């Protein structure tokens, strides 16, 4: 893992300087990613057409979800499901809202997601900072590899004992989910943060220390603000994970009132197996919040996820 | 760095103080207490909620605990029984078949799409955004939409083909292919982005030089593109195989392991047997084996794949 990612990081760093040399050093070219106007290639119509056609595979299931949710059961039975309904039936959403107790599931998921993101950002960055600045000391190096090794452990091995443990500790609820997401995300997040923190010049901290700032103060006032890009990355990854996760809420949460959105869909699907129109309205409502956020912050989300996976 | 600390550590306290005063970079003998306070709580929490369950699981795998009631030590008999259990072997067979096919398809498709997105096309950012959409959707929820598609739409659209007319999800031999479709559909979103960022690290000059030398598109891909995104290929293949081996959500939404147990993955088996089958100890033994299998497979892949990575 380490070697592969180091190569990636090097490759990334090597790029801007490498291309500057090639051009002759006079003009500093922007990265290829941003430099689309530098791209002198002719428009590739074949590729455009293929990419456009293939993108339908992403859009068709979403279209299907929308049209089925807008039908009455009678309209659904007569066709393949893809026909646009006439007249449009908006009632499914109201019914799904009631029958899946949508507001409650939404509130649970939102609470767990926001809680996990906030605690993850606060804790992972602190741990990563301490590790990154002391990685030459055996204790901190040991902790770093201890956390890293956990990345190899698959969830099924933890699953069965964890359920007993959370039940005994009274953590089989939303608070417990926040604790678990924060702790289980630690491995990957520390890994993402440390690489970045080590690239921050230590002189910045020393200037603050000379002025008498404590280590904690240095972290909050100097380092944490500099971590913004990585905070975004870790925040996005945690948010998508906590919002969409199914297996952990399934095994940990016991109280029906604590159900998250995916879990509510699972229960609903089991109870009303053939009631597709209402079920689809409910699926759409479960997917909509994150999808809407994504549509408006698309470039930001993609660059955040990319940053996290190649560093 | 370590030699420096070593030197500081062996020198007298007075010497350390003198050094401290003369050096601009302050090297204390031990880390400042604040750093320990930053790390300890996290280590304790991690040990309590991650390492402890792992150890408890390993402990109970040597017992006959059913998840409730009394238990006794049974030595290695859980492990011995696992290798004789047809249902367990079938679950491993299914998981590996599924994971290998899904990994190959994910990487081929997403590399092809990443190449397309990396060429000069119209609306590149728009399409890049579209291909990433599955990543933000809960696979269980969108899986129910696929389930409707396979069981209600496809039989009507492809009514001429018996396999699809009779609902592919109810076919013991072919239901797994529908799960592959859903899993690949979602996994491609992430893999495309990784490949795309890999492709963008390759300097365009290399292609210019290659085309001056008369290399065609396929030759350029084989001799330049593929070797240079080797690290990204490794990451994608290792991550996707590891993820697909643990497949759970797509199965729950499409077939729930059926028909019969023909699409039961190892994770689903551990979940079912452990929680409702009274096989707590037996399935933790299964999980320990599964952990070893996944680790061995991941490390093996790294060794094989990293050997053929190139750098520039």
TrEMBL record, chain A:
GO terms for cellular component: plasma membrane. Its main location: membrane. InterPro entries: MetI-like, MetI-like_sf. The keyword Cell membrane applies. Residues 1-17 have a biased composition (Low complexity). It is a multi-pass membrane protein. SUPFAM superfamilies: MetI-like. Keywords: Cell membrane, Membrane, Transmembrane, Transmembrane helix, Transport. Residues 1-37 are annotated as: Disordered. Residues 106-297 form the ABC transmembrane type-1 domain. One of its GO terms (biological process) is transmembrane transport. It holds the Pfam family BPD_transp_1. It is found in: Cell membrane. It comes from the Bacteria. The chain crosses the membrane at residues 43-70, 110-131, 143-163, 175-197, 218-243, 276-297. Belongs to the binding-protein-dependent transport system permease family. This is ABC transporter permease subunit.
UniProtKB/TrEMBL annotation, chain B:
Belongs to the binding-protein-dependent transport system permease family. Its main location: membrane. It is found in: Cell membrane. The chain crosses the membrane at residues 35-62, 89-117, 129-150, 174-196, 224-245, 280-300. It is a multi-pass membrane protein. One of its GO terms (cellular component) is plasma membrane. Residues 92-301 form the ABC transmembrane type-1 domain. This is ABC transporter permease subunit. Pfam families: BPD_transp_1. Keywords: Cell membrane, Membrane, Transmembrane, Transmembrane helix, Transport. It comes from Agromyces kandeliae. Residues 1-25 are annotated as: Disordered. GO terms for biological process: transmembrane transport.
